DNA sequence: AACACTTGACTTGTATGGTAGTAGGTTAGT
DNA sequence: ACTAACCTACTACCATACAAGTCAAGTGTT
């Protein structure tokens, strides 16, 4: 007898809709739910011990973020990855973050630079095969940049874009070239600290392109996870 | 007796949830529903002759887009405008569209330039006090740029940002300086046609800043529509 | 064998009842 | 007159039942 009546998964004190959303979102990003996989309002509701309604609302949010695809009367599926769409979202992220670092470099606060360098030290400590650990620090780094520029809406867009990109990173078989990424983080900080807007901008543009170098390889080795209509 | 039982407003063939979303979104952007105004699932459902559920889902989508604010057990309100948040979203739009025009200017297709110039002629024809007419052409213009760059996701972000900015433009009492805006459109096209990335970028950045020149004035004259926690 | 049809088990979409929480006005108590 | 408790009328949230569409397997017919 294993969980004929599954335990309550969601906590009290917060609406269950957003909770379901976060749970599913996390599982999709971390490739626990694979691209192409079929979901179902009823199944998810049962496994989380909630009704269909909050699950449905979570599905809607996920579909707006592009993580699932809802086909009326047919089913809901984790959206397959497509090289074109990943490059498309990366383009948006690069544009936003390029302008963000220009703002930060234009008036580099000493505390900000110190905080970024502190984070850099943390990043060097993390093991090269601890994806989750590094990605958490990476997220913190980029969030700190956005916060330093005082752009909260910009960050919310980046968060959404980052989800799509992180999904790819979780599928990479080899390490994430963490060493190189950290070096690039350092170049960004150097540019900011020197007040050199253009240098900082070029550094982060290069950085954001580097992240997806493994994409073509993944598209070949795991073609079943990719949209083949391109 | 006026509309004791209101007529069916939504059409068949498409789910009502998205329809309700579009209807409310339009009414909010065009300032028919004013910032701060109270909404209600039940009321909206009754007035549209649908059930509360699709309305609720529309509210959720609107709240993600930042057009309404849902306070659990308290009510749903059209989000008030705030100078800071409008500038925040404008920043994102500028960053994205700047990179878009650089892409387009980097490889300017003759048909694209011709299409843009054709649209420019249309814009000159529209009356200076026909807000809706001009805004539709303006949206087409910017969409054409995004499409020419092949960035569909970028456009979806712009659409969301544009909603927030257009809401302000609908509150402007005077004309929208349409003449000046059209001149700037022309400068953008010129930069693209010349293959001058930097000129095109500077032109669109200036353009997107120009759009909100009336914001401070509106914030003074219609303070009740603005968030006062800033 | 091949094709058209039916049937049934799915899917998401919509409507509705009930629950818990909030806010404001009213009434009872001091 | 003032305060505190209550009470009513709302709100969004959740659960459940029903409706409508899709798809595939199976069946009957040609």
From TrEMBL, chains A, B:
GO terms for molecular function: DNA binding; DNA-binding transcription factor activity. CDD domains: WHTH_GntR. Keywords: DNA-binding, Transcription, Transcription regulation. InterPro entries: GntR_C, TF_FadR/GntR_C, Tscrpt_reg_HTH_GntR, WH-like_DNA-bd_sf, WH_DNA-bd_sf. SMART domains: FCD, HTH_GNTR. It comes from the Bacteria. Residues 14-81 form the HTH gntR-type domain. This is DNA-binding GntR family transcriptional regulator.
